[in-house]
Write a structure and sequence with these properties.
heterodimer; A: alpha/beta; FAD/NAD(P)-binding domain; about 25% helix; elongated; B: Fumarate Reductase Iron-sulfur Protein, Chain B, domain 2; 2 domains; about 0% strand
Chain lengths: ~700, ~160
């Protein structure tokens, strides 16, 4: 084993070290400037400056870092403490097996894109332009998704043809894209680089088509397709350029077959196919929330109460001539009984509908009833335009919509005037929020926050970070405007591209490893994992390498100590604490994401704290075992401080809550043993709260 | 209680046509005007935001017959702070002018006008006042100013009031 020391421009003074015959000590002047080669199967101790810096310089090293610069030199602590820190780190690493490098081979260079809306089209175009074979699947018979149903796009109100048609044309000319329509995924197996997917294509009915439109004249079945009337055999002017039969409503009367100059097969069978793919882009888009669940608004019960999409299509197709319209915002949104979140784009959608009415019928009266108007970014001008056009904005959430003497009445309290308000209209538009297509997310085990996969945003751990090869694009990530959706699609296509360009990917994220001999399959770890990475396969606990982020929470939860986190094994930590903690010390176990940074900041803020404070670094407070704390106390520690991120700010979602629960129990046990319970403290210490850290350790020394 | 059945959709457009009323529809209800208003500090029943919002909703009678419309002291603090650049004090003025045209002038204002027309002053100058001025060494003033009545005639205000 090697100990690499760095004197950091001569700042750090080293004690004479004697660490036994097995340990080789190497001294360097500026370690950060050297390109030292440290093998992945070697364990080392690196003593120098901040681990945050050195981790970037030695990404492959199995190293324990000793921060001599910030924990000794800059706070004027003695070289003896430096020696203790290095000895403890050596003791830890001698008992810690190296972190395994996980290798995933990218066998298939195919990219699978799920969803033929604007996001899916854009992803497929970008990938195929870069020379990758792409499979695009769409569950309806036509490309275009939600955008193809709209009359116009906000904020300008341009027809979708301005955007969608060029996108589709680019896709069709980019080559090497296999498109499946009416197709859904039935089964997914495999892992990144080697997914096997089973597809099932429902029958389209129309086999050969010249677009003569004879069939719609004879089809007896009329369907209301989200506010717009069509027949059971229909066509959307996107792609492919042929009709399709909606078999959910078709009565198979055979009239269309008689007049068709091409070929219609009413008894067509479903087709199944298998494909390989290395990466998957989920672009399944969004759905309108089922607003009939908001019963007080009377959707589906009261005639004249419509959803935004239905209203838009009905007005645009000339089926509806509204004179007085109320547009009700947040129908079911920001509501704990329905959608607890804000879908971000519906405010603008409502403004778009108001503009649609004002454009087509300038004399119509439009009332927009909104709790809050969020015309974010540059879209404010749409709101300004509509105010100038004389649309009446009422602030409030309607309590109910009912019919009085045949007229729809919307009841609300207008917060602008602080008065009860009733408005009588002929049409009510319910502007509801959006939900994602969670069925597809479930198939790919994509973790959700609410309805959308946006859980790890601030930790920088998007779906892009996980070694899974599954990416979300467009409105499947979160509802957005057309331009936002396209930007997100390009991000996702870049991620898929950079993955598929490699022959194999390597990851060195430490992971939990389960010792099957010790494991009793009690399943306690399954519930604690913030990433759904643990499951039971063949009566054995299995940790999914693609999902585990290395927080170590499961390792501490395990009552048999069967699960251990690579790089932070119990045996290693015990030895470290044994070697480090002397009579009367304060052991500070610091979360590497916040509290540890505060201890470094203390040095740069020129704060003083007692020399008996010994700092060790852990991935998460959730990975601190009570046995670590008890061992420190048994070794004579005056107190143990566990420092972590503030509630809700945990890098691993909820590790600090686990730590809090353990601290409570630990304190009860201390009392039962006749010790002062404040000898163990769990504190939230943000990365700049050096003063708080110093104050706490002073307090613990009293 | 506002029932928009009684609202007059033309009302807001009529106010906009008046001088000072142009900015009406720019209001987005932030209530900065009400928060800035010193009158409101003394009587919370006066609320410029409420007057503007009711005007936008077309509640003609409610706005024009409100006694609070006349509380505005024209300090222009609201005009200074409105984030949408509405000249709020001018706007209130426009609504007042419109109210007078529609015969909603409060009696107090009518009485003041009569006084002005009669003697050109709101405060009647008596012999006692003249003596007091003399004692203080100030020059005497006229008991009436007939020019003011002429000005009032020129502004058409009297005809507007009689309507």
């Amino acid at each position: 084993m090697r100990v690499l020391t760095c004197n950091c421009h001569g700042l750090i003074k080293f004690p004479e070290l004697d660490l036994g015959p097995d340990v080789k000590i190497e001294q360097y002047d500026n370690l950060c400037k050297l390109k030292l080669d440290i093998g992945a199967d070697e364990t080392v101790v690196i003593a120098g400056c901040s681990p945050n810096l050195l981790e970037g310089i030695f990404p492959n090293a199995n190293a324990e870092f000793v921060n001599l610069l910030e924990h000794i030199t800059l706070v004027n602590h003695s070289p003896e403490k430096a020696e203790q820190l290095i000895v403890a780190a050596v003791a830890k690493m001698q008992n810690t097996p190296p972190v395994k490098t996980k290798v995933f081979n990218i066998k298939s260079k195919n990219a699978l894109v799920i969803g033929g809306g604007i996001a899916g089209i854009e992803v497929a175009t970008q990938l195929s332009k870069n020379g990758l074979p792409v499979v695009l699947i769409e569950k309806t018979p036509f490309l275009g998704g939600t955008v193809s149903k709209l009359d116009r796009l906000y904020p300008e109100g341009t027809p979708y043809s301005h955007t969608l048609m060029p996108l589709i044309n680019k896709l069709q000319t980019s080559g090497n894209v296999t498109q499946f329509f009416n197709t859904e995924i039935t089964d997914v197996t495999g892992r990144v680089g080697d997914y096997k997917i089973k597809l099932k294509a429902k029958p389209r009915g129309v086999v050969e088509c010249i677009n003569c439109a004879n069939c719609i004249d004879v089809c007896p079945v009329e369907v209301n397709d989200a506010g717009k009337k069509r027949k059971a055999i229909y066509y959307i002017p996107t792609f492919p350029d042929m009709y399709a039969i909606d078999f959910d409503t078709c009565t198979k009367c055979g009239e269309c077959v008689k007049v068709c100059p091409g070929k219609i097969d009413l008894e067509q069978k479903a087709q199944e196919s298998d494909i390989d793919s290395g990466a998957i882009v989920v672009a399944t888009g969004l759905n309108w929330y089922d607003v009939s669940k908001v019963e007080e608004y009377g959707y589906a019960r009261l005639e004249g109460v419509m959803k935004t999409l239905e209203f838009e299509r009905a007005v645009a197709s000339g089926a509806l001539y509204p004179k007085k319209v109320a547009i009700v915002y947040c129908a079911g949104s920001r509501d704990s009984k329905h959608l607890p979140y804000c879908s971000k784009i519906c405010c603008l959608l409502g403004l778009k509908e108001a503009k649609l009415v004002k454009d087509r019928f300038p004399d119509a009266e439009v009332y927009v009833i909104a709790m809050d108007m969020r015309s974010y970014g540059t879209y404010e001008y749409l709101y300004n335009t509509l105010r100038d056009k004389g649309v009446s904005f009422i602030k409030g959430k309607p309590s109910e919509i009912h019919r009085r003497n045949g007229i729809l009445v919307v009841k609300t309290e207008d917060l602008f005037t602080n008065e009860l308000l009733e408005v009588e209209v002929d049409t009510v538009v319910l502007n509801s929020g959006f939900v994602a297509d969670t069925i597809t997310f479930d198939k790919f085990n994509i973790k959700l926050n609410g309805d959308f996969p946006v859980l790890f945003e601030n930790a920088g751990l998007g779906n892009y970070e996980l070694p899974r090869g599954i990416f979300t694009a467009g409105a499947a990530t979160f509802p957005g405007s057309v331009s936002e959706t396209l930007i997100d699609a390009r991000k996702a296509s870049y991620s898929a591209l950079s993955l598929l360009r490699q022959d194999k990917i390597e990851t060195r994220i430490p992971q939990a490893v389960v010792d099957e001999d010790l494991c009793s399959v009690c399943r306690m770890c399954i519930g604690t994992c913030p990433y759904n990475a643990i499951s039971v396969v063949d009566d054995k606990i299995k940790i999914n390498e693609e999902l585990c982020m290395g927080c170590g929470i499961c390792a501490i939860t395990c009552p048999s100590y069967a699960s251990q986190l690579e790089g932070w094994n119990h045996s290693g930590l015990y030895e470290q604490i044994r070697a480090l903690v002397k009579e009367g010390d304060v052991l500070a176990i610091m979360c590497r994401w916040s509290a540890y940074n505060a201890t470094e900041q203390a040095a740069h803020d020129k704060l003083k704290y007692p020399e008996n404070v010994k700092i060790i670094r852990v991935p998460c407070t959730g990975a601190v075992d009570p046995s670590h704390v008890m061992l420190a106390l048994r070794n004579g520690a005056r107190g143990v401080l566990i420092g972590g991120c503030y509630p809700d700010a945990c890098h691993y979602a909820r590790g600090n809550f686990r730590a809090k629960a353990r601290e409570q129990i630990l304190r009860l046990n201390l009392e039962a043993l006749g010790m002062r319970k404040d000898r163990v403290r769990l504190e939230w210490i943000g990365k700049d709260e050096a003063q708080k850290f110093a104050d706490i350790v002073y307090e613990m020394n009293k | 209680m506002i029932n928009l059945k009684n609202s007059d959709p033309k009302f807001k457009w009529e106010i906009i046509k008046k001088e000072g009323g142009e900015g009406l529809l720019k209001c987005f209800g932030c209530s900065d005007c009400a928060a800035s208003c010193p009158v409101r500090y003394f009587d919370e029943r006066y609320n410029p935001r409420k007057i503007i919002r009711l005007t936008i909703l077309g509640m003609r009678d409610k706005v024009l017959s409100s006694p609070f419309l006349w509380f505005c002291a024209h300090c222009h603090a609201c005009t200074e702070r409105c984030p949408q650049g509405i000249k709020v004090a001018e706007l209130i003025n426009a609504i007042k002018n419109y109210a007078v045209e529609q015969g909603y002038c409060p009696d107090g204002y009518k009485m003041q006008l009569e006084l002005l027309q009669k003697m050109g002053r709101l405060y009647e100058v008596e012999d006692f006042d003249l003596k007091k001025r003399q004692r203080l060494g100030l020059p005497p003033i006229d008991k009436t100013i007939p020019e003011v009545a002429k000005i009032l005639e020129q502004t058409n205000i009297l005809k507007v009031l009689k309507k």
